[in-house]
Design brief:
Elements: H1 2-28, H2 31-51, H3 55-65, H4 70-94, H5 99-117, H6 119-124, H7 128-148, H8 155-176, H9 192-196, H10 198-221, H11 224-248, H12 252-257, H13 260-293, H14 299-309, H15 312-324, H16 328-353, H17 355-380, E1 388-390, E2 393-395
């Protein structure tokens, strides 16, 4: 359990850190500054998603099959993805943003390109605890610097600080794993590595777009100040949703071993607990936004936030079980359908209703996802799987 806790906490810290960074920027600069900063972070994070597609899942599989050549497989994967970094850099150069921002984004992405490649080694060698401590130290270092140099906060300053933070992470990673990575340098590229990880890229990208599509349309259609407000709100919602997985992960082994009756009972208890917990969570979020950010949510928006949060308490367990029985295709079908419907819905509602429209669209996506998992529940059940049809896609039968 400590391993799962360490890994989950290590991954959830950056999401929480983002909320605290936004607080410092808004407090010591303005909503406008944070809004413009968010527009650059969207470009950066989309690039990181493109470059890193399926890398972790692919390498974990390769390491398990060939543990003697961890260093070779790691380096070959890094080389195969280098052209994607070049592609991102060229796109950034063509975008109409200030030249100094372009330089910072490309430099930061290059650092992250190498730094993130070490993430899989943390999982494979089970080094969660030491790197959880690293994340805590880096978080305090970043926030301490922002507080100490609060009068210097600008867009460029924050981006440079984030890049420097990533540089420290990279140096620590490289030093720690220096003896584990033995390989011969070569310029040859194995592009089959990218195709092997493509399904993970699709699943990851769809998941990311589902949770952030409303934010992207807000960035496209609304002023920077409203973008800043919505990014803060949606980031807290994502943090709460991520915490759901954080809570359930320590019990996954037990969940996978439960019989159908026990699993149904556990699932019902977890869903009802989540439903009840969502009430104080939503009210606490409204309180935090009002007191720390001076963002006042209307009653309508508070209700929408509540509805936004609740569905994940139902379908989280189902997602893990579908992965367990290797039915990722069901997750893919639901994700693509929700995504395609959300695109016109976001554009229409945000154009008319602004931030409220963005929340309504996000809630609609969550409810539609919930409906899919209700359907899967009836056809698949909690254990085992029947032969079912989704549109024209036929999914096989396992016992």
């Amino acid at each position: 359990m400590s391993t799962v806790f360490g890994n989950s906490a290590r991954n959830i810290i950056p999401v929480g850190l983002n909320s605290l960074v936004s607080l410092f920027v808004i407090k010591y600069s303005s909503f406008m500054t944070w809004g413009e900063l968010v527009s650059y972070l969207i470009i950066f994070n989309l690039g990181a998603q493109l470059i890193g597609w399926g890398s972790k899942q692919y390498l974990l599989r390769e390491f398990a099959v060939d543990p003697a050549n961890v260093g070779i497989n790691w380096f070959e994967n890094l080389k195969a993805r280098f052209p994607l970094l070049i592609f991102f850099s060229l796109v950034v150069l063509l975008i109409d943003i200030p030249g100094n921002i372009k330089v910072i984004l490309i430099t930061w992405q290059s650092i992250l390109f190498i730094s993130r490649s070490f993430e899989v080694l943390i999982l494979f060698f089970i080094r969660m605890r030491i790197f959880l401590i690293l994340e805590i130290i880096l978080s305090f270092l970043l926030l301490g610097t922002l507080f100490y140099l609060q009068k210097s906060i600008t867009i460029q300053f924050v981006l440079i600080l984030l890049a420097l933070n990533e540089s420290i992470r990279l140096i620590v990673y490289a030093f720690h794993f220096r003896k584990s990575l033995k390989f011969k340098f070569s310029f040859s590229l194995n592009y089959k590595i990218l195709s092997a990880g493509f399904i993970f890229f699709i699943l990851g990208t769809i998941g990311m777009l589902q949770t952030r599509l409303d934010l992207y349309f807000v960035a496209l259609l609304l002023p920077k100040t409203e973008l800043a407000i919505y990014q803060i709100l949606i980031n807290y919602i994502i943090l709460i949703q991520a915490a759901t997985g954080f809570v359930i992960q320590p019990f996954l082994k037990e969940i996978y071993r439960m019989n159908q009756a026990s699993l149904s009972k556990f699932s019902l208890k977890f869903t009802l607990t989540g439903l009840l917990a969502s009430i104080p969570i939503t009210l606490s979020l409204a309180f935090v936004l009002q007191k720390l950010y001076v963002i006042n949510l209307s009653l309508q928006m508070i209700i929408l936030v509540f509805i936004y949060i609740v569905p994940i308490f139902y379908y989280t367990i189902r997602v893990y079980l579908l992965y367990k029985i290797k039915k990722e295709s069901l997750i893919l079908v639901s994700g693509i359908t929700v995504l395609l419907l959300s695109i016109p819905l976001n554009y229409y509602l945000i154009s008319i209703l602004g931030l409220t429209g963005a929340l309504i669209s996000g809630v609609a996506g969550e409810l539609l996802t919930l409906m899919f998992y209700f359907y899967f529940e009836n056809k698949v059940g909690l254990v085992g799987i029947k032969k079912i049809n989704v549109g024209q896609i036929e999914l096989g039968q396992t016992s």
